[in-house]
Amino acid sequence: MAKSIKIRAKIKGDTTTVKCLMTHPMETGLRKDSKTGKLIPAHFINEVMAESGGKTVMSAEWSGGISKNPYLSFAFTGGAKGDDVTITWKDNQGGTDSGTAKVS
Amino acid sequence: MSMNIKRRVFLKGSLAAGTVGAAVGAGLLAPQAVVAAWNEKAFKSESVDDALAAAMGEASNTASDAIKIKAPDIAENGAVVPVSVSTDMANVESIALLAEGNNTPLIATFTLGEGAVADVSTRIKMGKTSDVIAIVKSDGKLLSARKSVKVTIGGCGG
C-alpha cells in the first residue's frame, strides 16, 4: 500500500493550500460484481488526518460516498516553507497509509 | 473417521484463531476509538435530518449566503462530482457534506483544526439528481447552503 497518497502543499501569503490524491477503490458495499452477481464488500476510507508542525490541521470522516481514488484539498494558515504536511488515512477494513510532503 | 477428526481439529483451530484475532483487533481498535470513532450511526442514516442529528448534534440549521458551494450544474458522471465548500465565516468548527438523493446522504464531515481555513474540496458520488448540502458549524450553530446538481448517470450501485 505504499505511496497511495500524492500530496502537494503550496504556501501563498500565509495560507498553505494542500491538495492530495489517494489511491483507493472506495467500494460502498452496494455495488454488484457484474460476473458473479454478488455484492462487492464495502471498502472505503473512513478517516483522514492531516498534520503539520505537530498539530492536526484537519481531520475528516468519510463514507463510501466519496469517489474512487479520492481527491481532497484544504487550506490552513500558520505554515511555513519547508514544513512537513502528513496525511494519514484509515479504511473500514483496517488498512492504513500515510504520506508526507514539504510545503513549497 | 480420521477425516472427521481432522475436520474437528481444523474447526477448533480456526475458531481459536478467530477469537485471538478478534481480541487483538479489539485491543488495537480501542485506543483509536477514543481519539476518533467513525460515526457509523451518522453515515448509515437514511435521511438528512437523522444524519445531521448524529453527526453534528442537531438537525436544525439556517440557510446562509456566506457559504459557497462549487459543484457542476450538470454532472455527466455521478460517480465523480467535484464539490468545493468554502466560507469566510470565523470560528468554523466543522463542515459536513451531504447529497440529499443518496441512500445514505452523509458523505463526509471535516473537522477543522487550529489554523485551518474553511475551504475544502473533494469528489463525491451521487446516485441521482438532487441537492448537494453543505453544513457549516460556526460558533455552535449550524448554517447550511445547497446547490442542485443534475446527474445524468448515477454513481451509486452499478
Q: What do you see in this structure?
A:
The complex is a heterodimer of chains A (104) and B (158). In chain A, β3 (45-52) and β4 (55-62) form a beta hairpin. With 104 residues, chain A is mostly beta strands. Chain A starts with a strand and ends with a strand. The radius of gyration of chain A is 16 Å and the shape is elongated. Chain A contains no helices and seven strands. Chain A has one domain (5-102): Sandwich (Immunoglobulin-like). In chain A, the strands form two sheets. A four-stranded antiparallel β-sheet of chain A has the order 4-3-6-7, with no helix packed on it. Chain A has a three-stranded antiparallel β-sheet with strand order 1-2-5, with no helix packed on it. Chain B has three helices and nine strands, in the order αααβββββββββ. In chain B, a hairpin with a 6-residue loop joins β5 and β6. Chain B is α+β, with helices and mostly antiparallel strands and 158 residues long. The N and C termini of chain B lie far apart (48 Å). In chain B, the strands form two sheets. In chain B, strands 1, 3, 5, 6, 8 and 9 form a six-stranded mixed β-sheet that branches. In chain B, strands 2-4-7 form a three-stranded antiparallel β-sheet, with no helix packed on it. Chain B folds into two domains: 1-37; 40-153, Sandwich (Immunoglobulin-like). The chains are: A mainly beta (104), B alpha+beta (158). Chain A binds chain B through residues 15, 28, 30-32, 34, 46-47, 49-50, 55-68, 70-79, 90, 92, 94, and chain B through 25, 32, 36, 38-39, 43, 79-82, 84, 99, 102-104, 106-117, 119-125, 155-158. β4 (55-62) of chain A pairs antiparallel with β6 (106-112) of chain B, so a sheet runs across the interface.
